Amino acid sequence: VAKMARSHAKIPLLARTHGQPATPTTVGKELAVFATRWQRQLRQVEQAEYLGKFNGAVGNYNAHVVVYPQAPWEEIARTFVERMGLTFNPLTTQIEPHDFLAEIFHTLIRFNTITLDFDRDMWTYISLGYFRQKTVSTEVGSSVMPHKVNPIDFENSEANLGISNALLDHLAGKLSVSRLQRDLTDSSAMRNVGAAVAYSLLAIRSAIRGLSRVAVDETALRHDLEDAWEVLAEPVQMAMRKAGCENPYERMKELTRGQDITQETMQAFIQGLELSKPDRARLLGLAPAAYTGLAERLARQAER
Predict the structure, then answer these.
(1) What tens-digit pLDDT sequence spans the chain (304 residues)?
(2) Are 4 and 28 in contact (CB under 8 A)?
């Protein structure tokens, strides 16, 4: 995704907030947002501590001290646990409390949820025609509608992420709770860790497969932008504020809200404003496809 963000850094895209046309962005910048979010969660997984204990039936070295009373048991336990590649937990009951597992599972839930957000955005972009799906001759899109090419990979990913998150959420809550010094509920629950992670892996693979089978439809993006001159209401009203014009927001709202705004409409309005020559020229030279701010630069910041 980060690679795709950089290669699509310049391609303008009509943003949508609340489903409605909003300030333009670029395809690459929106992909870079997801890449950065995923990378942050992966760093947290990589930095996770895995704890271990070696202190007897209820965590007090009771039998150890009786059999070898002179042995430095805390030091021995720490050395043993750390040689196993774990972080030593000196204070436990019969079991290591599993809080570190809950932390890891919550991080995986966040990673999954970001992927779910990505799946839904890609599904929506495909629905809007912003991305075309590559056809596979052996696939059937619909049992009765032969023309269809459905975004099944993103839908399958979304479904499996839901199952994974449900399991991970239960495990994160369950494994941190054990009655008094120990009960056996953690043992049964732990048998589902593999399934929880496996559903996540299936979902990620589906999302990757879905991404590999789409291509940006720049023509569709351009058409949408050409029909969205109302999005320039934002920079125009900001220039009006800079120039000290009265009621800039209200005047732009009256001009654009619920109206079919064209290039001619917007530029005629700009011509009638008391702006400096540089500001007027800058606004008259602006089009929705060019109004992307620093999106291209931001897209190229996606980590490799």
Answers:
(1) 999 999 999 999 999 999 999 999 999 999 999 999 999 999 999 999 999 999 999 999 999 999 999 999 999 999 999 999 999 999 999 999 999 999 999 999 999 999 999 999 999 999 999 999 987 655 555 444 445 578 899 999 999 999 999 999 999 999 999 999 999 999 999 999 999 999 999 999 999 999 999 999 999 999 999 999 999 999 999 999 999 999 999 999 999 888 899 999 999 999 999 999 999 999 999 999 999 999 999 999 987 6
(2) yes
**In a shared domain, residues 116 and 149:** yes
The tokens for 166 are 């449900």
Asked if residues 34 and 118 have their Cβ atoms less than 8 Å apart, the reply is yes
* Catalytic annotation present for 223: no
Task: Please give the structure tokens belonging to residue 80.
Answer: 């043993």
Find the catalytic residue in 64, 106, 142, 176. 142
| Same-domain check for residues 183 and 281 | no
Q: Is 18 a catalytic residue?
A: yes
Q: Identify the sign of the CA torsion 113, 115, 119, 125.
A: positive
User: Given 18, 137, 143, 188, which residue is catalytic?
Assistant: 18
Number of domains in the chain: 3
Q: Which of 161, 196, 222 is the last residue of a domain?
A: 222
- 303 is a domain residue: no
Tokens 């629905």 label which residue? 127
Q: How does 217-252 read in b/e, with b if 16+ C-beta sit within 10 Å?
A: beebbeebbeebbbbbbebbbebbeeeeeeebeebb
Q: Which domain holds residue 207?
A: 2-52+92-222
- This prediction's pTM: 0.91
